[in-house]
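Dear Dr. V.,

Thank you for agreeing to look over these. As mentioned in my earlier message, I'm a first-year student in the group and I'm still getting used to reading structure tokens, so any feedback on how I've presented them would be very welcome. I ran two proteins. I've put each sequence directly above its structure. The first is here:
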Amino acid sequence: MKIIKIIVAIFLVSVTAMSAQQKQPNILFIVIDDLRPQLNAYGLNHMITPNLDALASEGRLFTNHFAQVPTCGPSRAVMLTGKNLKSKAEIDHHHLGKILAGKPENEYPETFIHHLKRNGYYTVGMGKISHSISGKRKNKLELPNSWDAFVNNKYGYQMYANGQKRNKKTTPPFEMLEVEDEAYPDGRLAQLAIKELEKRAVSEKPFFMAVGFLRPHLPFSAPKKYWDLYKREDIPLSPNPEVPKGVAKEFLHDSSEFFGNYYSPEQGGAGVRISDDYARKVIHGNFASVSYVDAQVGKVLDRLKKLKLDKNTIVVVVWGDHGWHLGDQTIWGKHSMFENALKSTMIVKTPKMKKAGKETKSLIASVDIYPTICDLANITKPENLDGKSFASILKNPKKSTREAVLSYWRDQISMRTDRYRLAVFNDGKKQELMLFDHDKDPNETVNIAVQNPKIIAVNSKDEQRISS
């Protein structure tokens, strides 16, 4: 009798475990560096991005996703932890590595990946996820307790083909060569991801897999075949290439990453335009880089389907860590409180998604990803997260989960509602305001702050309430 009871108990435990696993879908998380909402799926018919467009047609495309910080490391820190940064000092690329690398595991999970691992997931990462492409800071994992495994792409940040290193005086911010996709890190990363998927296909444990692609981050390097997809003369220039009327210089940016770290025959940024010919050449490189990374994502998604892993896999993201100015407001880069630097690509696909292919205009923030993944994975959310789950939007694109998104950069803070963007510069000595009405001025060309003190007052109260 005792033996029968033991067998029944083991059977019930096994059934419960299998049931729990069935409720925990696999998660493929694709991070793309500096990818603003620049896909054909976003209505940009000049862009050649068939793989990401196909994913958007099968999932949910977010047209109003905003980053909290317009730079790589800090934006990823917010996304991974589900918590906003608390001071200017924390706006640092190595923030997570500084506070986590080499540290022992404690009660509160260091990231949502760590939380998934604690709840039965096998977690594996590769490429640029937190900040370093090696996943390490000073030879220690940036996220020491998050990963079961981190796959090293041994070529690291090699941005030019054939091992060429950047020289500020001679190497331009783009490259076009007759080389294979694997000549650059993203091509090799796609192959690593495919090999890892093949391993996961024969494992019974639910997995979380993060793949962090580098392009279209500077330099805009891509094989020539991706440049050849576009005709230079047909490439559109920025619709808002001038400094917005009434905007203080404190809101502009000198584009030092672009003009300071690479050779450029022209200097621009912070109110100075470059020539249209040179602008088209640079934009051409950016477009080629986007199409190149689209092809790499396509390889990974194609293998996911061939392995039939897509039947129980959420593809969360494609997530762009922030936006990028392509000459907009005279800026070439990120690091601003304008729409171009803060709005980025976001696509989420879930199995048997209702109203798949329908885009949503609902506001969401990168900080919202953590609680959403918890809901999708059927695990309890930790307390004190700053983000709000948008799982309901995945079921109904007309749902709304937040009324505004707050973002910040050094001495600036911005609030984006469904209609307005209000930004404040305050360094303790001087204060400047800018306000844009996106219903009338989606390209942010005219600062209407002075003419609209009532709107400023209402939005300022909302900002204080939301941030408290």
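The second protein is here, in the same arrangement:
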Amino acid sequence: MADTKADLLLSGFTNYFLWLEQPDFAATIRAKAESGCRVRFLVGDPNGATTRARESIEDTSLTVSTRIRITLENLAKLREVPGIEARFSAAEDATDHVSLSVFRFDGDALVTPHLARSVGHDSPMMHLRRREPSGMFDRFVEHAEELWERGQSIA
């Protein structure tokens, strides 16, 4: 993420771990946006049917809706920063979103296809680099971009 200059898209269903595991993540995001980088967060609706269904599957104390709310709480503190955008995935896309996380950093992406009955952090992660048009990088990023375009702004 340190080298990202133009486009940062964080489209995990919860994105909560970023705020907990990355030192001073809010300051990093703020600095990226202030330097002209487009910073976008796509999360699931904490009150949505897909979220409730996923909570039932995972059956963990740290629920999916709580993890989403961690992200929303932290994003609220950055609301005044131009260049930071946030959306909920559209209800009709939530099942597609919860099953695949795509974190784009310009020409690099971390992609996690979520295993059916596992918590996200127990699923495998792939590091993709954009090498040619229409390759694996573009296919995953285009999927995330479509979810972004169909998403609803977080007020």
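From my reading of the second output: The longest helix spans residues 136-150. The two ends are 26 Å apart (CA to CA). Does that match how you would interpret it?

Kind regards,
E.
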